[in-house]
Backbone:
């Protein structure tokens, strides 16, 4: 007997048939004697339609009303999931954010969870009733519906698992787990049985879009074990105690046989900005990056070339490609203050990252990585590192070659 | 300065464009210095889609979950209407049933309003903020969303107008008022400037589908003046104090020049049941109509022919055509108890009614009606009357002829 939170994403509740199939996964867990809370997203595509309506009717819309409209998607699937379970003989009841209550701050449209009171739902779960919870939504201090921002249903599920002290939070999605790399790019990529929170965080923020970064962070701090699996598996497929159909995201300590490198990620949504012949004098970095920060632009990698003439240097950094034009505008406006000859933007770059908690105890990963790329004639334009990650910026044309080369180098290829 | 409740039906909030147009009607009233509450239905067709989903997923569905799903339609339009108003510079805020609160009993799917607390919304309305209220929904004693049954948004609007002591409840729909008869059948039908509650009730229950019977009953008992008009009129068209663009449903006393007959209604959704050669003895009516009542079947008109042989008679009555098969089944099962030779059902009939509070003080309306029909060779199969209404059952083939004949007879034809 375990207490489980089961979360179903948009593609797993896309229509009546998929809702029914997802309900069979819940029924299996209930039949196995587990107490279950189910968190549902809106039907795939439904939230986009609702968001589009709010944009059409008022381009600068009031976030309170946006939340009232957009939260309706999860309300529908919560009711339908409860009905699907009931029709299978499973006791179930839907819960909206305000009914639980799942309290948030008043940052409508991107609210943060302030607290979840399990007093109403937990006793009912313990009597065998499945609590079906509308994800992505809560109630603010103004007694109005709030939403948690896109992808917020994962966060709802993890927060609920923490509040209920659940044994596990199962994230049902349209892929069967976390892979060593993107299988579309690396055919030899294989599913990981386990991955640590830290590694998952790097994977999520670097472009592996299975789990939202925010939900992984919360799982890590709240010590919620996440289990990622596919809702499109046969509902009678074994759980994590039998043949493993997914990936467990857990504490490092739970991973017995730790690889040096767990995965190779890549991100194509970065853009590069180069300031040519910037005056090379103290305080220049502040004059460049200050205005960018003030404009809400996150800068990722930074490279300052060695000054050739002793007076000027080239400064290169990366931003999200959606921020590129804004960054160019901000720096053009500040040209008289910064003093540079030219400014250039480019989007034909990719960031490739090698990730693994095992790096902490294994030296030489970076050297092996740089050598392997050099052997393939791939030029590294910038480097950034953390304790468990090494990222390089390269020409976008070499993205696939680089990812496959590193996947093989670090012995991740499936047999 | 008046306090107005404005209700917009499904076709008036069918998409972004119609919502915006409806919002312009609200803006006109606000600009005129009125304090407004707006009640909205779901987008036209949206509720049907939601109902269909609940049926697909569980044919015998839990009414609580049905309500959670189906109420989402009005939630969406309430938010969008608030956004539309805000974008026009009108202060507005959406309110769901549980936020007001609009309290109901726990009859999920067809709840009755128990009370509306105006304490939160009225002060805000008086400060110039439009309260946009999701129609059709409330909150039950179990802290769960309830719905009021189909057409419930009219009821929400009237109940709200009563709770707010509104000066008027404007019902915006896709027709511009109440007509003397169905204009599709009677090209000379004309719009009434005013109609009494009692007449409107007869019109509504007899097939003029502009207003829900229940909402008219509530308007009558709560003395809420209803004003029916089209949301598709230009928003700058005059209100009831200028050139009259709709129909006011009000107390008889407010109608100065009262016609003898106000309208001719017809209902095609009746079916006729005839029991042939029923034993003609005391108590037979109870043995026939008792089982029908027990099965929830409403019987409308009843005709018992004069017994020819002194022992048996033919008994004819009408039911809703959707109840016909059930009625036949119930009476077939009770055959040994009732004792009759044969049972026959027919749907090729229509009920035509002449309605007018003026009948109370004018004798001879029935005689003129029967004569006119006889002159056209139309056979009357059954008759029922009330103080302000005379209904006859005739062959469906004569429906249009009968309605037009009576419309002309009682001087309702437009010039």
Residues:
């Amino acid at each position: 007997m375990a207490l489980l939170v089961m979360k179903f994403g948009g593609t797993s509740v896309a229509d009546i048939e998929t809702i029914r199939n997802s309900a069979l996964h819940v029924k299996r867990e209930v039949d196995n004697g587990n107490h279950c809370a189910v968190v549902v997203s809106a039907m795939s595509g439904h939230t986009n339609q609702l968001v589009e309506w709010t944009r059409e009717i008022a381009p600068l819309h009031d976030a309170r009303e946006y939340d009232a409209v957009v939260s309706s998607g999860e309300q529908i699937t919560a009711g339908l999931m409860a009905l699907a379970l009931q029709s299978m003989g499973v006791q179930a009841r839907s819960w909206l954010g305000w009914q639980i209550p799942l309290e948030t701050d008043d940052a409508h449209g991107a609210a943060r969870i302030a607290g979840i009171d399990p007093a109403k739902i937990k006793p009912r779960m313990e009597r065998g009733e499945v609590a079906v919870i509308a994800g992505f939504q809560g109630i603010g201090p103004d007694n109005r519906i709030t939403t948690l921002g896109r992808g917020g249903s994962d966060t709802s599920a993890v927060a609920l698992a923490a509040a209920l002290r659940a044994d596990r939070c199962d994230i049902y999605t349209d892929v069967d787990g976390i892979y060593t790399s993107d299988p579309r790019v690396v055919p030899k990529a294989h599913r990981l049985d386990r991955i640590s929170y830290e590694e998952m965080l790097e994977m999520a923020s670097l472009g592996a879009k299975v789990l939202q970064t925010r939900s992984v962070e919360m799982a890590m701090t709240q010590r919620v074990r996440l289990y990622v699996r596919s809702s499109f598996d046969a509902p009678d497929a074994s759980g994590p105690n039998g043949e493993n159909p997914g990936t467990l995201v857990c504490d490092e300590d739970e991973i017995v046989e730790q690889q040096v490198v767990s995965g190779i990620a890549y991100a194509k949504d970065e853009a590069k900005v180069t300031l040519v012949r910037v005056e090379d004098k103290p305080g220049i970095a502040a004059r460049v990056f200050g205005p960018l920060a003030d404009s809400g632009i996150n800068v990722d990698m930074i490279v300052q070339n060695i000054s050739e003439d002793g007076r000027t240097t080239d400064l290169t950094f990366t931003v999200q490609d959606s921020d590129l034009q804004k960054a160019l505008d901000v720096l053009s406006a500040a040209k008289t203050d910064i003093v540079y000859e030219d400014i250039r933007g480019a989007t034909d770059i990719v960031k490739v990252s090698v990730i693994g908690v095992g790096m902490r105890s294994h030296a030489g990963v970076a050297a092996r990585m740089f050598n392997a790329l050099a052997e393939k004639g791939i030029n590294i334009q910038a480097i950034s590192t953390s304790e468990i990650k090494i990222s390089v910026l390269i020409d976008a044309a070499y993205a696939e070659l680089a990812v496959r080369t590193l996947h093989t180098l670090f012995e991740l290829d499936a047999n």
Q: What stands out?
A: The radius of gyration of chain B is 24 Å. The longest strand of chain B covers residues 270-279. The interface with chain A takes residues 16, 19-20, 50, 53-54, 56-62, 64-69, 71-73, 75-76, 78-80, 82-84, 86-87, 93-94, 96, 98-99, 143-145 of chain B (CB under 8 Å).
